[in-house]
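Posting this for the archive.
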Amino acid sequence: MQPPRCCLLLVLLYLFLLSGTWATLQGTFTIRMLKTFTFQNTSFVDTEGIGLLEDIELGSLDKHTWDMHFCQPWVRPALPRIQWDTIDNMFKIFLHNFIHLINEGAIQMDVPYPFVAQSMAGCKLYPNKTSRIFVYVGYNGQDFLSLDTDNATWTLSQDTDLARYVRAFLQNETTFVEAVKDLFNDTCINAMEMFLSYGRAALERQELPVATVFARTPSPHQLLLVCHVTAFYPRPISVAWLRDGQEVPPGPQLNTSPILPNADLTYQLSSVLAVAPQDGHSYACRVRHRSLGTRSLLVPWGNSHLLLITGLLAGLLAAGALAALLLLCLCRRR
């Protein structure tokens, strides 16, 4: 049986051979290979896996056959069929050996079933053409082990018998660690070139944000202004509230949700600002996003105009009252 280090090495190598033209694209790019293993007992393991370029799903793993299913039409043409066949074979060998290793450790360390093991491996490429590789292993949803590529060592994320057992096994595979470092340090950028060229349209996709501002009144003494922004892509976005044209600083009155995915592969979020009813200020939600270029999307709260008009009317009434009072005083003197 082929040792796990060879299988994992070839899997990661071919993963990064799914590449395209990074030189003409700007920014940092990351490929991640995510795998989840649910160990029901020593003889049954439910396996799931996906590959991602940034947030674009490249492919998924069939849990029954361990075959790869491509999620983008441009992924398969990136490599010849013979190379995809090699990837498929090596990936299945790696899965088999990984499961065997974890089961062996669980039995020796008397780990109770069921449990879940996860792994994430990948590479991050920076605009200056430097790169960083990463390998993380998880156990039951908690950090378990990570690979320190600078020192070629495995680091414990939790101090358990099982973690020490797996680390000892992997730490003895120094050839594997060095080979992974050399592989990604020497070839990661060049391999990425082809993949980024095939997926360039997907990576450069931009969708304009749609922002809506409305109010809620949870109590007579509190007004919540809600700025809901949706349908934007890519994920990075800046949403801020402006009070009389000045940005509201972070504080307990400001609450912004995490960025959440939509079903159409765009994103959404909400920013909520708590204010006192009829405080006399004008409010607007400002959105900045790559699709807007240098412009900003500015959506005022509808009642801000009403408050402004009310303030102007109050000022006019006060001025009128003062003029009437002065006129009355003059009349009395005459």
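The helical segments are 4-15, 81-108, 161-171, 174-198, 200-203, 302-333. Confidence is low (pLDDT under 50) at residues 1-23, 304-318.
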